[in-house]
Write a structure and sequence with these properties.
The chain is an all-alpha fold. Helices cover 70% and strands 0% of the residues. α3 crosses α5 and α3 crosses α7.
Length: 290
């Protein structure tokens, strides 16, 4: 007689919440699609524009920063094509902040479903990431339209830089999201901590201002800490892909950009592995705590 897998009885059955991990999201693609549709419908229920708000929201967000920082505070005169510079960072940071915000609440927000029906718990943060990607698409379309109008043309190196930056954001957001979703079940104060951190994140990257301002006005150790931020590498790669080709090309990107980006992506992958392990370890108590 062959040995049964760990956690399974002799018939090969497992108690709920003990197996599968992220692989279950691939095996339950139909359920994943249902969760994504459910979240989108719940968010836009009773709305006249529906998914059209995905275009309005980034446009309004951009307009506020552009006129306040770019026009009134004069950043437009210091940074060539400041509108593209700003929006190329904003569209990526919005993806990260929405992913982190929604994944943190993905388990607690589905408490009634978790208490009543057994589903692979990883489906909930994964669905939140996919919803964030749905909202990312309209922003990217606006960015591409503006970049083309400013003289941008696609190139293999630029597309590779954009894919690199996107990969950093997704791995960081998903990894932290898995970890925070699990911790938030037991300590609800984490939601407030995440909300506060989202405000800080917006100003911690070279999106509203160039990174050279940090070099000019901060001590060297602050600059080193600033450049070590994985989000700085991701935003700089997106700006290299969509903003820099439409300029005269005399702007210096952060030093050792690709080396720092490689480290950032490695950190993101490690966070996914750590978040997956923490989530798998904690999910057995989700229904009890909720």
């Amino acid at each position: 007689m062959t040995d049964s897998p760990a956690g399974a009885d002799r018939d090969g059955l497992r108690p709920p919440g003990t197996g599968g991990g992220l692989r279950q999201t691939l095996r339950h693609r139909y359920l994943l699609r249902l969760l994504v549709r459910r979240e989108l419908r719940a968010r836009y229920k009773g709305s006249l524009l529906g998914l059209g708000w995905s275009y309005v929201r980034p446009a309004v967000h951009f307009s506020v920063y552009f006129f306040v920082v770019g026009v009134f505070l004069g950043m437009e005169r210091l940074v060539e094509n400041f509108a593209i510079y700003l929006f190329s960072g904003m569209v990526l940071i919005n993806l990260f902040t929405e992913t982190l915000h929604s994944t943190t609440r993905s388990v607690t927000g589905n408490a009634p479903l978790i208490r009543k029906v057994f589903l692979p718990r990883e489906l909930f943060p994964t669905a939140s990431v996919l919803v964030s990607l749905v909202h990312f698409v309209p922003g990217m379309m606006i960015l591409l339209g503006g970049a083309v109008a400013a003289g941008w043309r696609p190139s293999p190196s630029g597309l590779a830089a954009a894919a690199f930056g996107f990969a950093i954001i997704i791995t960081l957001g998903f990894g932290l999201g898995l970890l925070f979703a699990a911790v938030n079940v037991f300590f609800r104060d984490l939601e407030q901590v995440v909300d506060i951190s989202l405000v800080v994140i917006t100003w911690s990257v070279p999106m509203i201002y160039p990174w050279t301002h940090v070099r000019s006005h901060a001590p060297e150790w602050v600059l080193d800490l600033y450049l070590a931020n994985p989000l700085v590498s991701a935003v700089s790669l997106f700006q290299k892909a969509f903003w820099l080709p439409g300029t005269e090309g005399d702007f210096a990107l952060p030093p050792d950009l690709y080396a720092r980006a490689g480290i950032s992506l490695a950190v993101g992958v490690l966070l996914v592995l750590a978040g997956r392990a923490a989530f798998a370890r904690s999910q057995k108590r989700f229904a009890q705590e909720l």
